[in-house]
Structures are given as C-alpha cells and as structure tokens.
Amino acid sequence: MIKLGNYNTLDIIRESEQGLYLSDEEGNEVLLPNRYVPETFKIWDPIEVFVYLDNEERPVAVTDKPYVTVNEFAVLRCNQVTKHGAFLDWGMVKELFCPFKEQAFKMKAGGWYLIYCYLDEETERLVASSKTNRFLDNTELTVEPFEEVNLIISHPSELGMNVIVNKQHHGLIYKDNIFQELSVGDELKGIVKKIRHDNKLDITLQKIGYRNIEPNAEKILTVLEDHEGFLPLTDKSDPELIRKELGMSKKSFKKAIGSLYKDRIITIEEHGIRLV
C-alpha cells in the first residue's frame, strides 16, 4: 500500500512522457514526474520517494524531502493566508494547508508555528493543525517516573513551559525548573520527575540518573529544583536546621551531598549547594 504523507520504497515499472511510473508490492501505481527522475535508472530498480497529493489532488511521488511527514510535529513558516486558511512552507512545491478551524491562534504570513501534520480522512488531504494538544493523550501513559524522554517545547503558560513528551503525551516544566532559554519547537531530552494522580506529567531538564541516586540525594535534588537550584545549607550548617529543612540527619545530608558532588550534579559553595 502506498502511504500518503510518508516515504515509500517503490519499484520503477515503466517510463512515459510524463516521467516514471512506480509500483508497490500490491500493484498500486504512482507517477514520478520528469523533474524528479534520476539521471540513471533501470526498470525494476527500487527508489525511495515521498508521496502526497499534487495541485490537482492526484497522488504524486517526489524525491524532495519535506520538513514534516504525516503524524509528526514541526515548526513551519506561514507563507500566506487566504480566505480559506493558511498555507505553510514544508519544503514542497505544494504548500501545506492549515484551515482556520485548526489554528490555535490566527496565523499570519511570516510567522512560525508548531503544527501537527495529519491525513484528513474526509478529503484524504494532508493538513496541518496548530491545536497540537488534541493529538496528545495522557489516558494511558507509556512512561514511568525518572525515565528519560524526548521533548518538543509546545507553548508557554503561567506555570512554566508545556512540552510534548515522546510525541504522545502532554507534560509541563515548571518555571522553577527552567535554567536555560527555551523556544517553541525546540527538541531536547528530559526526565519524568513526577506522575500526578490525574496522569499529568511533571518534567525536568536535569539529566540525572535518578535510579542510581540514593533516596536522600534524590530528596535534596527535588528541593534544589523547587528552590531555583540553590539551597543555603552546607556540611557546616546546624544539624537542627538541616533536619527542619530536609527531614534528615546531618550525617545523612553530608553523605548525600558528597555523592552528588562526586557525580558533578551539584557544586558546594561557601553559603550553600547549587545544582549544576
């Protein structure tokens, strides 16, 4: 089956005035226009192509590489807005259409937007949507606490920065856990810090091997993240102050920060400890 909006490896079966006809194992055919025909080829040679609908709504194969494929997220530039909707540059001759009903905010020409590309079942056209949250689902999570995950920065909120987790789930990085500049569309690694009772995901960007950290060290890390990465406690602090702030003995505190310092996760300063 030839997949629209995706890469397909097809066989060259015959040549025509318009270009080359390609076929899959089921005998479905698609045209590779002359402008994309390789300089040398043989009948029955396999070739990798991208298939989508041309300006006349006919399936066509091309060797261009789009910026996004079906069921994927990407940040794209809006080339123009008409009475029908917005048209986005996705690296192809025919622009990617985003209907007004699929725009989280009204798009403007020249603007950049995080979108999800999907196949409209009614029209069988590839379309874009900037309402990315509706393509995410936290009902059945596929991640666990302390697991490293792939993130796409989605959009800011009053609490912090919303993120797309493993291209499946919605997550949030709280302001207190952000120590670097983030922009919509950035792709980076993160860690599932906490799964809440309603399956909401708290994400941290601190790349820490939580599973290998003792409980006291993990607790100190959590407190550090909740206090903008700094805690005014050292191995010279009063034992009662340590117990009040962290609920652990001074001996346990010294052992935990020693482990974190050895692993270069924190630095020990004159007046406290700081997350690297």
Largest β-sheet summary: 5 strands, antiparallel
Overall tally of domains: 4
Describe the strand arrangement of the main beta sheet, using strand numbers. Answer: 3-2-1-4-5
Q: What is the CATH class of the largest domain? A: Mainly Alpha
Oligomer: single chain
* E-strand count: 18
Strand fraction equals 35-45%
Overall 3D shape: elongated
- Would you identify the CATH H-level superfamily of the largest domain? Winged helix-like DNA-binding domain superfamily/Winged helix DNA-binding domain
| Helix/strand order | EEEEEEEEEEEEEEEHEHHEE
The average pLDDT score comes to 91
The number of helical segments is 3
CA-atom Rg in angstroms = 26 Å
Poorly predicted segments: none
CATH topology of the largest domain: Arc Repressor Mutant, subunit A
Overall helicity: 10-25%
Q: What is the topology?
A:
Elements: E1 6-15, E2 19-23, E3 29-33, E4 46-53, E5 59-62, E6 72-81, E7 85-89, E8 96-99, E9 112-120, E10 125-129, E11 148-156, E12 160-165, E13 169-174, E14 187-195, E15 201-204, H1 215-226, E16 230-231, H2 239-246, H3 250-262, E17 266-269, E18 272-275
Parallel strand pairs: 13-15
Antiparallel strand pairs: 1-2, 1-4, 2-3, 4-5, 6-7, 6-9, 7-8, 9-10, 11-12, 11-14, 12-13, 14-15, 16-18, 17-18
